[in-house]
Amino acid sequence: MCSMSIPPRSPHLETICQQAIAGYTLKTGDSPVDTAKFERLLLSMIAASEKFLGKAVSARIFSAGMRSVVISVVGEHAERGSGAPATVVVKHFRRKDSATNSGGFGYLREKHGLSSLNSLVESSYSQLLGWDDDARFLILEYVLGTHLSEFLSVSSLSENGNAGQDASAHIAEGLDLWSNFWATQLNSTRQQTVQETFQRSLVTADARARYPGRMTSPQLAFKGLEKFVVDSGHSANNAYHRELEAQLSSIIFPDPAHSVLSSADFSPQNMLVSQSQRGTEVRGIDAEGTAIHHWALPVAEILLGFPSHPESRFEKLSTTASWHDACNTFYQQVYRGATYQTAADDPCVQAAVMTIRCTLIEQTGMLSPINRVL
Known about the structure:
Layout: H1 11-22, H2 36-53, E1 56-64, E2 68-75, E3 86-93, H3 107-120, E4 128-132, E5 137-141, E6 146-147, H4 165-186, H5 191-205, H6 219-231, H7 239-252, E7 259-262, E8 271-276, E9 279-284, E10 291-294, H8 296-303, H9 321-334, H10 347-364
Antiparallel strand pairs: 1-2, 2-3, 3-5, 4-5, 6-8, 7-10, 8-9
């Protein structure tokens, strides 16, 4: 795909661009969208979509974050006689090194991750239609559906944390959909082959990769751990610190027997539920953190109420008995090695919980997440 970062001037595209900007409401952490620089970027993204859509009809901004910009574009169908519109998603990665550096979240991990994830389980993620390495654009299949997070409603909880019968059934359905999706991914018979392919792709794209294909930005957890150790009254690099570091390392750099490949994004916000002739389908839509990691990480995520989700809004639900039952059922589906009575009893899950909490400490500056007792 040739570079389209500087599109020719087009009044038609400029009108679409202005309408998209006017219709977008800034979210927390967004960059401004009412600047000449952003308008040029948006024009380039819309122009890039026309290679797949024909003439663009409209565009919508999904996000304008510090890390990436995501839009959808509706266009006239390539087959002029049909008159049916088609839609694609265009994603731009802001960091200039994201097309050469696979160490953190970014362009390379999503570009090579999508094909790998769809090799694990066919059509489990949006399809990669095209790319522009120079502009750092990915052109993606537009996936329709309801965000899985909407199944996990907390609005109907009573003051004592209980849900009504209908709400409980809806939440149980959401957890079941989440668990089945991830169990299918992690238990795919192609795991080892796809892990190797993903690693080779990243090494080819990024010869300087220190940990090709491993978890993104691994130092976040180690830095958070040091802050926790010091705050707990211990000195850094003492025996206590080294013991906890070993537990973190076992999760961040797992033994091959415990390694799995996934998008590493376990938030139900980035999973879409739809109905088709095959029944209820769940598909993932974000792969920029694709990594080889320990199987216990998604278990720890559900156990903690998906802390990776914005605002950690499911923590209250995660204390209920039904949520713990769902977590333990999922654990029984994906564990590798010796199994324990509950997920919280497994040392691997405990280490994964600590890894998540230490990462949150470094990201948020708050020490409280690690102090919650399971």
